[in-house]
Design goal:
This protein has helices at residues 2-27, 89-112, 122-141, 145-165, 173-189, 226-230, 260-263, 311-315; strands spanning 32-35, 37-52, 55-59, 65-68, 75-76, 81-86, 195-198, 203-206, 242-247, 252-259, 271-275, 283-293, 299-306, 318-334, 339-341, 344-351, 354-359, 362-365, 369-372, 388-392. It is α+β, with helices and mostly antiparallel strands.
Length: 403
């Protein structure tokens, strides 16, 4: 008897919980939304690109102390000075100090030239200081020390200008005189370099070698097959022989190892666009120069020529890239947000306190999201930028009130 009663009570509790869940689900329908954002999406063939170009290793000096004149990634003319060779390290340190002093003098002279401090917007100046400081931290975190150094000079100029605006400092002439005196003493004590290292060709200077300088040369594109890259090895180098290299700023090549079937979409002479991971060149315009098949004709190496060049490209040997076959611009939303109402494809958005159904034209879709066309100005029946799109919800319908 007791056991039967216990079972009945248990069953009753389960029934109550089930009924409560059904009622709760019918009455309470949580809604999740996302804002429609404008994006540019690409699709294509991904590969790891190998860079082929003409590079000239620059030998180290056999004696003395080397002082670099060319910055890493800096463009240098033929016969231009890459480095000076001094007798002692003190001379190299003095050259660096002279350069720093000259920069400080230029910055202070620039500040002294501001003659209408009352017209300076202090709030705007503070904003620029904050932005520049953030950029310095960002570039330091990404190992772009050259740009960080340039921005630090600009930051110092702005901070000194602020000091003048708020009245903490009214005259930099004393500091300027001290710097000029220190500069004069250093220049008088500095001995001349005993020799120079010059560039045999014009191009971009890169302060390191990777062993591929004589392996990947832009002279015979037919040799660059899938089998070649299967067995490629750099020449060993410990950096003692060369202090860097000059990278030609003329035509260079990207090798893409893909399947033979994928290569059928291209022919020699095609102009295509390649997406990279570089900040300076996220997209490269290239031309198909060669399509080299493997011996079993299952794989292919595509050789793309390119004539764009800068410091970031000069320092790159390999990188993740995509041969773009399609490019789409539009509003990105989750794929699960799509609904069909009255035989029209669209989404529900929150308009005021109620739901509204708007049409979408799908341009691109993946497993997780879609990109759809943005409504033209004045069109309130299609999805617009920043609309709050319902991506999760039940019992959705036009005009439903949202609490």
């Amino acid at each position: 008897m007791f056991e039967n009663r216990f079972v009945r009570i248990g069953i009753s509790i389960i029934i109550v919980i089930f009924l409560f869940h059904q009622i709760y689900s019918a009455v309470y329908t949580p809604i999740s939304t996302q804002s429609a954002q404008f994006v540019t999406e690409t699709e294509g063939i991904g590969f790891t690109g190998m860079i082929i170009r003409n590079e000239i290793p620059v030998e180290r000096s056999k004696g003395g102390v080397m002082h670099l004149r060319a910055g890493d990634g800096e463009r240098i003319a033929k016969d231009g000075t890459v480095a000076d060779i001094y007798v002692s390290e003190q001379n190299s340190i003095a050259v660096n100090k002279i350069s720093e002093l000259k920069e400080k003098i230029v910055n202070i002279e620039k500040i002294q030239g501001y003659n209408d401090l009352a017209a300076v917007d202090i709030n705007l100046l503070n904003t620029k200081i904050d932005e520049t400081l953030s950029e310095i931290l960002y570039n330091c975190g990404n190992s772009d020390l050259k740009k960080a150094r340039q921005q630090s000079d600009a930051l110092l100029t702005m901070m000194n200008r602020k000091e003048m605006v708020i009245g903490n400092v009214t005259d930099f002439s004393g500091q300027l005189e001290e710097l000029r005196s220190e500069l004069s003493d250093l220049e008088a004590s500095l001995s001349q370099p005993i020799s120079k290292i010059t560039a045999s060709e014009s191009g971009f200077f890169v302060s390191q070698v990777d062993g591929y300088e004589t392996v990947l040369v832009a002279d015979n594109l037919e040799k660059y097959t899938p089998e070649f890259f299967d067995n490629i090895t750099p020449l060993s180098t410990d950096g003692s022989e060369y202090m860097g290299k000059i990278v030609s700023d003329y035509t260079w090549y990207i090798a893409a190892n893909i399947s033979a079937d994928q290569s059928l979409a291209y022919k020699i002479g095609d102009t295509v666009k390649i997406k990279t991971q570089l900040k300076s060149n996220p997209f490269l315009k290239v031309i198909v120069e060669a399509i080299n098949l493997s011996a079993d004709r299952q794989r292919a190496t595509l050789l793309f020529s390119c004539q764009e060049m800068n410091a970031e490209l000069a320092a790159m040997r390999t990188g993740s890239m995509t041969i773009i076959s399609g490019e789409y611009e539009g509003l990105r939303i989750e794929r699960g947000a799509l609904r069909v109402s009255d035989n029209q494809t669209g989404v529900y958005i929150i308009s005021g306190m109620e739901l509204k159904f708007v049409k979408v034209k799908v341009l691109y879709q993946s497993e997780d999201y879609i990109i759809c066309e943005k409504a033209v100005a004045g069109d309130s029946t299609s999805l617009r930028l920043h609309d709050k799109v319902v991506v999760k919800g039940r019992n959705l319908y036009e005009g439903k009130i949202i609490d």
